[in-house]
Inverse folding.
């Protein structure tokens, strides 16, 4: 149901991940597609008596906040949440995001603002130009809608630092923290800035030249609370 490719500047091996839906609820919007169609059923009577901007689709259409599961041969199982992207907002592939009560995705602010907030997090895995690796480009006239990965292994933007490998069989030393740069993670410990339920999953050193690093999220990962 989705091919998600990363560029050489993002991940040196330039991988393409092939996700297949486990839940049969994606319809024609796969995990890597960005849409400008507002979710929901169209205006009508009876069960369709809900006013939205578009008519109902002939097959299932996701709704904001919905979470689905998928599987990828290299990364294993993952979870994805459907969110909206406000107008005039760009999100590079791998951006760490949170969302408000209206399910608008927002890049997680820098550590000084986001630490001790308890915000739930997800990662941008969709591109406006399908499978381009460019992420979600700004749209000045319309909201956009896309799947964001909230569980499993995902390439996530990091700051320009080296991150040492995570040794096989080791359960310590791989903690993930919000960065001093918005929308990114890093490995430097900070009080109130750890992302709970997240771990680095890199098996080799990730250098300063790579903008993304493989992170595992448990599906309900949050920044530390107050």
């Amino acid at each position: 149901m989705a091919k998600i490719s990363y560029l050489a500047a993002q991940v040196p091996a330039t991988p393409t991940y092939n996700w297949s839906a486990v839940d049969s609820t994606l319809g024609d919007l796969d995990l890597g597609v960005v849409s400008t169609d507002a979710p929901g059923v169209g205006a009508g009577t009876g069960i369709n008596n809900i006013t939205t901007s578009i008519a109902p689709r002939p097959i299932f259409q996701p709704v904001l906040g919905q979470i689905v599961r998928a599987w990828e041969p290299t990364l294993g199982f993952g979870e994805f949440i459907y969110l909206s992207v406000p107008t005039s907002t760009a999100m590079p592939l791998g951006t760490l995001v949170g969302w408000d009560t209206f399910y608008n995705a927002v890049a997680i602010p820098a550590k000084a603002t986001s630490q001790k907030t308890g915000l739930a997090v997800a990662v941008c895995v969709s591109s406006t130009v399908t499978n381009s690796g460019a992420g979600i480009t700004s749209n000045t006239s319309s909201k956009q809608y896309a799947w964001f990965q909230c569980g499993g292994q995902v390439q996530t933007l990091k700051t320009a630092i080296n991150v040492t490998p995570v040794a096989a069989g080791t359960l310590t030393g791989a903690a993930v923290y919000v960065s001093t740069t918005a929308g990114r993670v890093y490995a430097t410990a900070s009080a109130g800035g750890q992302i709970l339920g997240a771990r680095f999953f890199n098996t080799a050193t990730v250098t300063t030249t790579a903008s993304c690093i493989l992170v595992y999220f448990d599906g309900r990962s949050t920044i530390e609370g107050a």
Notes: The chain has a mean pLDDT of 85. The CA atoms of residues 63 and 163 lie 37 Å apart. The helical segments are 111-114. Residues 2-157+216-223 form one domain.
